[in-house]
Specification:
It is built from 1 helix and 33 strands. The protein has about 375 residues and is an all-beta fold. A hairpin with a 2-residue loop joins strand 31 and strand 32.
């Protein structure tokens, strides 16, 4: 039986005691080695409990919360729909594929990509296959690691051969395709696109950020960031924020691509940033979590987790939560002070998802969790 309900186990609480205080303000970490700590370490886990947990058999991507359901798929080719309140399985779609993207939703359909070079569209209520699109033929198809998005009835996603596709969500027919070009080993588009004001924005492993006309696929502008961009941009007001693999964070004018400011971390970055109120939050591969001023890129604070940190997610009131490679899910407030930590046994690679007062996340290849 996949579904398990229960409180946090005594062993986990004992583990927290052994680890000791784990959250602390960390305004200037360069050269420092302290972990995130709190002056109230006894309260770090007291306010969180497992609403449910669901056993999986492979590493999964997502999740997505829509209309009381949670959707996700994994490398074993199984795509699930669960009740987000109880964790009970509603349906599953099984195919001999490696699901490699987070899902998207529109008009009672769920969309996701796979390593074999296909995009699938399923009925969100039943899991029935609506259509399938191939990025090429048996010789030219390309893996899809760019999570799709939907805007104005069009599905946008990239593939590993440097192409960004636009499909009609009802039929799966191609509207247009844009080819970034460049050296073969740098063509991959892993960045999930974002949409605003009839423009599609995305990053590429060739080091460019692109802005395309959403209707025609014509290039509006591009900006060279100097290294691969695996993360997805975020938009705040008139600014596009991007993290690059070389450790730089860029703020670009969404209309022209002009650089407004740049922040240098000195570490590799693959995780996407997130905006909460007037701050930009992001993580690097050294385990640091940053908060920057949206307007000028000045650092508000910087804290360090005990291991490599992954993409953050906004909670509320400027607070964020994020996972780490050693299986911890942290929450910090808008000042970088620790709120709580929850430990699992698997790498929390994909961003947690917050819906109302529940946090959903995937731990390694083991479980999907719902915490309250």
């Amino acid at each position: 039986m996949n579904f398990i309900v229960g409180p946090i186990k005594t062993a986990l609480l004992f583990l927290m005691i052994l680890i000791g205080p784990c959250l602390k303000p960390f305004p200037d970490p360069m050269g420092a080695e302290d972990s995130i700590q709190s002056t109230e370490s006894e309260n770090i886990t007291a306010d969180k409990k497992i609403l449910w947990q669901f056993k999986i058999a492979s590493c999964a991507n997502g999740p997505l919360i829509v209309n009381g359901n949670i959707y996700f798929g994994g490398s074993d080719g199984i795509f699930y729909a669960l009740d987000s309140r109880t964790g009970f399985q509603k349906w599953k779609f099984v195919k001999e594929i490696n699901i490699t993207t987070a899902p998207a939703y529109a008009e009672e359909m769920i969309f996701f990509g796979c390593h074999q070079g296909f995009i699938y569209a399923l009925n969100s209520n039943s899991g029935e296959l609506k259509w399938r699109f191939s990025t090429g033929n048996i010789f030219t198809s390309s893996s899809v690691y760019s999570s799709p998005i939907v805007a104005d009835g069009i599905l946008y996603f990239g593939c590993n051969k440097g192409k960004l596709f636009a499909l009609d969500i009802r039929t799966g027919l191609q509207k247009w395709v844009y080819e970034t070009g460049g050296q073969l080993h740098k063509l991959s588009i892993e960045s999930a696109p974002v949409f605003a004001n009839k423009i599609v924005y995305f990053g590429s492993n060739n080091g460019n950020v692109y802005a395309l006309d959403a209707k025609t696929g014509n290039l509006i502008w591009k900006y060279y960031a100097g290294s691969a961009i695996c993360s997805s941009p975020v938009i705040g007001a008139d600014t596009l924020y991007v993290t690059a693999f070389n450790g730089n964070v860029y703020a670009l004018d969404i209309s022209t691509g002009r650089q407004k400011w740049r922040f240098i971390t000195g570490s590799y970055m693959e995780a996407s940033p997130v905006i909460a109120e007037d701050s930009l939050y992001f993580c690097d591969q050294d385990g640091y979590v940053y908060a920057l001023n949206l307007q000028n890129g000045s650092k508000k604070w910087q804290i360090k987790a005990q291991d490599e940190a992954t993409s953050p997610a906004a909670i509320k009131n400027g607070s964020i939560c994020f996972g780490t490679m050693d299986g911890d899910l942290y929450a910090v407030d808008s000042k970088g002070l620790g709120l709580w930590r929850y430990h699992t046994n698997g790498w929390i690679k994909t961003p947690p998802v917050v819906s109302e007062d529940t946090i959903y996340f995937i731990s390694g290849c083991d479980y999907v969790y719902a915490l309250q």
